[in-house]
């Protein structure tokens, strides 16, 4: 019987891409990036998003550091768009890191689903997000009351999919594997990480990509959880 539900935060509850797009649109105009040779805001954001996702995948696996991720995502984007990376305005990255976590776009149904599940289960967050931004997101969106524990990889010292973070999360929650389940969007970090550790996992798949053979359970919308729990 499931008693504990562990959620990923970014791309699962907090709509990372939508919040990033809003922030980057504001900063594009604030810093007049069009004058630097980036005439299309949407193209700039699309290329950034692709680079950011790629770098986060490397970060999950411990291949790069937080500092490399933050320094590379915009410099790579500038280079791909034919603009010298040293033209990135001073303060742009810092403003992005400061403003984006304060955005409040959640995936549809998030609060309704969390309120429902909280009545029946103990809820927790396991995030690979950086500590300061994760705590800001949780506070800005009033998510803290739903969760008994917020486990952040920077505090633990390892990222999902490392089994050590799942072990730590269960100990922190006072939970057993057989009474726990993980919900997240990352196949490697959330789903395979949890399954390899020995707990069930639900793949949150809002983009409706092809379901991999090793994924037993997926949902396209968070409200589907109310039908199963």
TrEMBL record:
<dbReference type="InterPro" id="IPR023198">
    <property type="entry name" value="PGP-like_dom2"/>
</dbReference>
<keyword id="KW-0378">Hydrolase</keyword>
<dbReference type="GO" id="GO:0008253">
    <property type="term" value="F:5'-nucleotidase activity"/>
</dbReference>
<dbReference type="InterPro" id="IPR011951">
    <property type="entry name" value="HAD-SF_hydro_IA_YjjG/PynA"/>
</dbReference>
<protein>
    <submittedName>
        <fullName>Putative hydrolase of the HAD superfamily</fullName>
    </submittedName>
</protein>
<dbReference type="InterPro" id="IPR036412">
    <property type="entry name" value="HAD-like_sf"/>
</dbReference>
<dbReference type="Pfam" id="PF00702">
    <property type="entry name" value="Hydrolase"/>
</dbReference>
<dbReference type="InterPro" id="IPR052550">
    <property type="entry name" value="Pyrimidine_5'-ntase_YjjG"/>
</dbReference>
<dbReference type="InterPro" id="IPR006439">
    <property type="entry name" value="HAD-SF_hydro_IA"/>
</dbReference>
<dbReference type="InterPro" id="IPR023214">
    <property type="entry name" value="HAD_sf"/>
</dbReference>
